[in-house]
């Protein structure tokens, strides 16, 4: 089976600074991978290139067999790539259900602003989605009043509502409690298992990476250092020195 995402020899230069140096990475369709690495190693730059926020200096990015190298973010989004940033981007003055409605309508390009005032979607369409994602109890709550972890969950589900085939999640558990982190792990697993969505995650929380139990890509100095299972990565002496610091119990 062809990978949903294929990154081939991607480089990115900012003047005399090389942020990415020949990155090769593949994500099989329907799989989940985590990217780890110290600050400044190129993780976010890689996401910017995949999503179209930045063009690569050289190299190629394919999504679902199509060359998307250098395409604009709106085009890449419409093709089925959804990106979540570290800070939740939700509509704070709207309820959880309304946020989901807006995301779905935008993806289908079904409503213009004026027509949305005259015709609203049937909210029962979203009941199961909200219930399955643990947002059912918050359906009528204004997003600005949500706990941080629930806002993060809402934004992930807004991306799912757009029928994205690939989710790019940038530190989805940043600022979360242990319980919220565990709930996010469960949500990502459910999205993959029930919807077949492919997910690429940037994360610093190694407890989250361990619990997600997926292949881990280690980046250093703008390149992929290695890839493997969490247990193999955490026991690699070079990685422990460069990323995890002095040997510690993991």
From TrEMBL:
SUPFAM superfamilies: P-loop containing nucleoside triphosphate hydrolases. One of its GO terms (cellular component) is plasma membrane. InterPro entries: AAA+_ATPase, ABC_AA/LPS_Transport, ABC_transporter-like_ATP-bd, P-loop_NTPase. Its EC number is 3.6.3.-. It is an enzyme of class 3 (hydrolase). One of its GO terms (molecular function) is ATP hydrolysis activity. The keyword Lipid metabolism does not apply. Residues 5-246 form the ABC transporter domain. Keywords: ATP-binding, Hydrolase, Nucleotide-binding, Transport. This is Autoinducer 2 import ATP-binding protein LsrA. The gene is lsrA.
